[in-house]
Design brief:
Largest sheet: 5 strands, antiparallel
Oligomer: single chain
Radius of gyration: 27 Å
Structural class: mainly beta
Distance between the termini: 94 Å
Number of helices: 1
Length: about 200
């Protein structure tokens, strides 16, 4: 007759090798390869004690869609969400079908799918806004809501042509041709027979 406790222990041991999802700590992140070295925040039972899982190398999700992507900037110590995949993902990430194998939900099949702020979360009141907020803890943010987009930063750089179909409101001065012959809009005038004219503010 099979001992029930022995059978349960065997099941528990085998199930402990199935990794569906858990959290981990970033040890390092290679942005060129979109791969991370991650320390799992889970211990597994080994006889009468719980032991740490080994550090693993994982592909990192870029939130990709139709040639557009959001690239994360993970740093050492960041908490990330690890997704356990049924089969190895190396070929699948290249668009190549993977042959089914016994390696179901193996630890080496994990991928990084997102990050978590360490609890308790401390979000500045200035960042708690209606709509979608993409922000930095220093207070810079991009806020998208109905009929309005707001961006706040010490410096905003637009690299390319800018087209505006509505009115433009400016609280401070504007500098034109900054790299060649800087001109302040507030002081830009043209002499005419009837006196100076221009767009001085």
């Amino acid at each position: 007759m099979i001992d029930a406790d022995l059978l349960n222990d065997k099941f528990d041991f085998e199930l402990s090798k199935i990794f569906i999802g858990f959290l981990g700590l970033i040890e390092s992140f290679d942005k060129d390869k979109m791969e991370a070295k991650v320390k799992p925040l889970v211990k597994v039972k080994n006889k009468d004690e719980f032991i740490e899982l080994p550090v693993i190398f994982c592909p990192v999700n870029t939130w990709y869609s139709n040639k557009t992507m959001i690239i994360p900037d993970y740093q050492k110590g960041d908490i990330v969400e690890l997704k356990g995949n049924i089969y190895p993902v190396q070929n699948q990430l290249k668009g190549i079908s993977e042959n089914a194998s016994p390696l179901r939900f193996n630890l080496s099949n994990c991928t990084v799918i997102g990050g978590h702020e360490k609890r308790p979360i401390k979000i500045s009141p200035s960042l708690k806004k209606e709509g979608l907020v993409i922000c930095h803890e220093n207070g810079d943010f991009f806020n998208l809501k109905k009929d309005e987009v707001k961006i706040k930063s010490k410096k905003i750089i637009l690299d390319g042509d800018v087209a505006v179909t509505g009115d433009v409101e400016v609280d401070k001065d504007i500098t034109w041709m900054k790299k060649s012959k800087p001109v302040k809009a507030s002081k830009h005038i043209h002499p005419t027979p009837t006196g100076p004219s221009g767009v001085g503010l």
